[in-house]
Amino acid sequence: MTNAFDMPGKSDCRASGMFLAIARLNHSCVPNAQQTYVLHRVDDNTEHGALGYEVLYATRDIAEGEELFDCYIELRQPTADRRKDLMEHYRFLCTCPACGPAEDTAMSVEALRVRKEDDSRRKRALKLEEDILQYVEMGEIEAAVDLGDELIKLLEHERSRGWGERYIASACVTNSTLLSEQGKWRRALEYVRKAHRWNVRLQGENSPDSWDTLDKMQQIEKMLR
Ligand SMILES: [Zn+2]
Predict the structure, then answer these.
(1) CA 116 to ligand 1 centroid distance, Å
(2) Which of 46, 97, 142, 188 has the most C-beta neighbours closer than 10 Å?
(3) Separation of 30 CA from ligand 1 center, angstroms?
């Protein structure tokens, strides 16, 4: 339950797998790496072809000897909620650089202020995503796209580094899809290109997400021809 990984992408089953090296990664709410389960294209005849494999990409520069961290939970939630989530599902109290020490009394006023600001950025990111969905339901597509822009800026901001980048591609895909539906192909293409760059950077060229954004890019480019 705590060491297995989802192996998504197979349509006929929902599977989990144990990967002995990657299973040893610890959690951080500002991780420096991201794991992805990579399926092969159907024409892949290598020995791994049938099963796919688990890969790990650095999400930022990592110094020699520095520990690698992945994340186990939704990062767009404030410290108290992340800690609750981790305690319930993984039975530990997170004391990563974002969460700070176990006791708030051990934190300086400045550290508490920084954490409070980080908490509100994370909450804001999730709230924006909910608001976007609401605008879409109301048919207010331009407003939804504007909020999407705000969300992408927030995620790309230096102060969101360590967690924001994980969510940029999906925010860009949402904007691209909304603009495509309106026939605004040029703008749609810009967003999906950006999404693809992030997917490749964080998950490599062979991840399901990267294939998805590549397909979307090619479809829009065809429309523009
Ligand atoms: Zn943490």
Answers:
(1) 13
(2) 188
(3) 7
Question: Within its chain, how far is the Cα of 218 from the centroid?
Answer: 23
Pairwise CA distance, residues 70 & 99, whole Å: 15
Distance 94 CA to ligand 1 centre (A): 5
Residue 17 zone, left/alpha/beta (φ > 0; ψ -120 to 50; rest): beta
User: How far does the centroid of ligand 1 lie from the alpha carbon of residue 98, in Å?
Assistant: 5
Per-residue confidence in pLDDT tens, the chain, 225 aa:
778 887 765 555 667 888 888 989 999 999 999 998 887 655 555 554 556 778 899 998 999 999 999 999 999 999 999 999 999 999 999 999 999 999 999 999 999 999 999 999 999 999 999 999 999 999 999 999 999 999 999 999 999 999 999 999 999 999 999 999 999 999 999 999 999 999 999 998 888 899 999 999 999 999 998
- Spatial CA neighbour of 28 closest among 84, 70, 74, 75: 70
Handedness of CA 103, 104, 110, 116 (dihedral sign): positive
CA of 79 to the centre of ligand 1 (A): 7
Q: How far is the CA of 37 from the centre of ligand 1 (A)?
A: 23
Q: Distance, CA 32 to ligand 1 centroid (Å)? A: 13
